[in-house]
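Researcher: Here's the sequence for the chain we discussed earlier.
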Amino acid sequence: MNYTAPWWLPGGNLQTIWPALYARRVSGPPPVYRRERWDTPDGDFIDVDFLVAPAPSSTQPLLVLFHGLEGSSRSHYAEAFADFARARGWAYAVPHFRGCSGELNLGPRAYHSGDFEEIGWVLQRLAAARSGPVLAVGVSLGGNALMRWAGEMGDAARGVACAVASVCSPIDLAAGGRAIGQGFNRLVYTRMFLRTMVPKALQKLQQHPGLFDRDRLLRARDLYEFDNIFTAPLHGFRDTDDYWARASAKPHLHRIRVPALVVNALNDPFVPAQSLPAAHEVGAHVTLWQPAQGGHVGFPQGRLPGHVLAMPEAVGTWLAQAGAGAPGVTGA
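Model: Thanks. This is the structure I predict for it:
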């Protein structure tokens, strides 16, 4: 799999920002979704969006996408993967992490980068409802959590998903956290994330008074501070350092026993190239794709304004080929 960015869009930051804001994300009309609300085992809910399209045959795959931090089924990459699935007659689903579907969830729990228990529950429920194979892709945060699930499950993952992929995931969370907290990244990307994360956390505090220190949260200026006050303690971690260490997928890649693709551009502003795994650090079931360009979930192609269909095409085709032992999985 080779990728070269268009000449008119140089550098990791432009290859990240332009595709998210301006590039074409579908080859036809925007995807239409049907939403299902699922009650969770802990008395809460998640919302799952399913692509509305001509009904695929029972032997065709279901492609499941786990979105990134503060993402949704309307993120540019989610719609691009929907376009890929629609073109092949596949079923397609985007489960929303808690609080990301447009409605605040009920409990104090939110979501985090190592949320493999939630990933497992969702995938098992989707797989149980279908006779065809399940292929899963996670983007950024969702990809780290998906790879954590695959590592935790070992051989048992094959009973749920035929193949998995992560795209631009910070699989070394400490390295990614440091990168996004510095310089241009801190000024642009950190502010962008905190702009939605802080209000959601404050809503959560209204739901559950005393959950955390409001004044400390309002003083948070980076994701390290936010995770120290909110994400880590709410999800059973001692602090940010404990969270980033225990939730990172990189140390668990050698435990994966299902075909897995790990995609990271070397110029990703969020994920330092030196933090990425080398071939000797992963197991035989893991394929590493580390192109020189692409940015963070960008991979634009074509003439202005460009499109973001190249990455879903490459990743989706790999998933189809890697899961080819399952009935109905084809790259066509």
